[in-house]
Amino acid sequence: MTGNEIRQKYLDFFEGKRHKVIPPAPIVPLNDPTTLFTSSGMQQLVPYLKGEPHPMGTRLVDSQPCFRSEDIPEVGDNRHTTFFEMLGNWSLGDYFKKEQLPWFFEFVTQIVGLDPARLYVSVFEGSSAASRDDQSIQIWQELFKTTAPAASNSVGFDPQVKIYTYPAAKNWWSRVGVPEKMPVGEIGGPDSELFYDFGEGLKLHEQSAFKDQSCHINCDCGRFMEVSNSVFMEYVKLEDGSFRPLPAQNVDFGGGLERLAAAASGNPDVFTTDLFTPMIQTLVQVTHASYTSPDHQQAMRIIADHLKGSIFLIDGGVTPGNKTQGYFLRRLLRRVVLKLRSLTNQPLTPTAYRQLVDSVIQTYQPVYFANLKNTQTLTDTIVTESQKFEKTMAQGLRIIHKTPADQITGQFAFDLYQSFGFPLELTEEILAEPGFKVDKAAFKAEFTKHQERSRTASQGLFKSGLADHSDAIVKYHTTTHLLHQALRQVLGSHVQQMGSNITAERLRFDFKHPQKLTDEEKKKIETLINQKIQAYLPVHKTIEAQDQALKSGALAFFREKYPDQVSVYTIGHDVNKDWYSKEICGGPHVTSTGQIGAVKIEKETAVGAGVRRIYVVLAG
Ligand SMILES: [Zn+2]
Ligand SMILES: [Zn+2]
What we know:
Structural class: alpha+beta
Distance between the termini: 59 Å
Mean pLDDT: 88
Number of strands: 16
Low-confidence stretches: 460-468
CATH architecture of the largest domain: 2-Layer Sandwich
Bound molecules: zinc ion
Number of helices: 17
Largest sheet: 9 strands, mixed
CATH class of the largest domain: Alpha Beta
């Protein structure tokens, strides 16, 4: 079964279990300054897992495109990627372990067709704070006992060799880690992972760096692949350090689509699944390299993953730059250029890039890229960025190769970054090639120092995506609604939100408008927002059908896909009439505009043809 088929069958299977299919969140989260990218399916569900009712009900399912920038250095082996899809199903205080585990087992064995003989599971072994997950153990025991091995129809599998228990560090979920670290009132619970065994025949363990140790399900040799995790949000921590069951227990399930597809094919290399093959084949055509050649394979995997990730990021509204999301996109594309150079001495032509882009789009349409009219603009972004780097790369590489080892310091790496645009990590990677005799420890220390310095400005953004919303952020977020409406009122209804970004210090809002704002317009907008703040208008939340909400005049962000039932925030004294602003939104809001205090427009600039950018700060 192919990856594209598995995605659809999974959604169908859980729809059959009365789940509602929800649209995935944008890959760049909207209005969420706590994280740069959507890196898991549960990210958009956090408010609902914490107790807020979800407009679509208590059983939800989706497939979420994710990007994990922290995995950039891991890419190159058979299973790590920065871009991947996470299959997710959720119970919000609805079903629990005795439904979740048998359902997923049924899905992988009956629908995907994985041989139960190759499946293994892990469960929480218990600690002084929380007890062993006996319920999950019992459910898995039943499932394996009643599942007959393929060669026999009389005896089930021995559950003793199928179920492994692990401590909290491996099989416990909470936002802050193990039970002992959790503050009073924090929620958490055990989780249970499923592993697929590719078997002894491939000799993955014997050929790995772990060959001197014995192999086990959590071994990193690649023989066992973790394909999914069922998290059971079961407990709340009490004052005395013990745990009490939550009144409403949640299930948060996440499964790797590419890994399931690899398991279904019996080949542990995710790059040989249908989610990658069209791209790898095109790469072979345009570079004349060979995927099976040990000299080429790693570079081809990096290029395929990074280009695919870049395409999803560009489609999600990211442009290459030196900060935040743009920095990661730039890093991906520059690494692609460097790796391409190891496969072919010629830079790729724009046509070759176009073919690569098309191979990715074709793999994922019509599930994703539904609104993409043509791939030219997307290709142009990649080609422009690549060509810019190709020019300076050769020069930079010459300097690296000419410089005596003892002069290759952290400062040197930083200069390369500034003069030739070599991301620091890229310099580190080049220097890690054999033939460079540098004091790696000293370099690493210098490098880390500079790396931290260069990132200070955006460091708060690298924190967990589950950070709580601070006061300032809630105020700024609510201000975007007032700003959006004020812009439309003063400039006209052609004003449309094109993006926004909030930090604890300011809000940034991009919108469609053909020319620079006059001082008078800015003053009018600022005054209008402050009037609405001083009027202490209440902020109401309602759940409405999407088409009804839009018909009633609610604004929506065009880049986001919304479910059939949506949360609508209305600012004004009456939800039905006489309101000031109405928007489809999932963000955090104040309950009365008066809580915002006062705001000030800081500046207004252009960001592209017909798009303006405005900065607003809290002033009181
Ligand atoms: Zn192993
Ligand atoms: Zn909002």
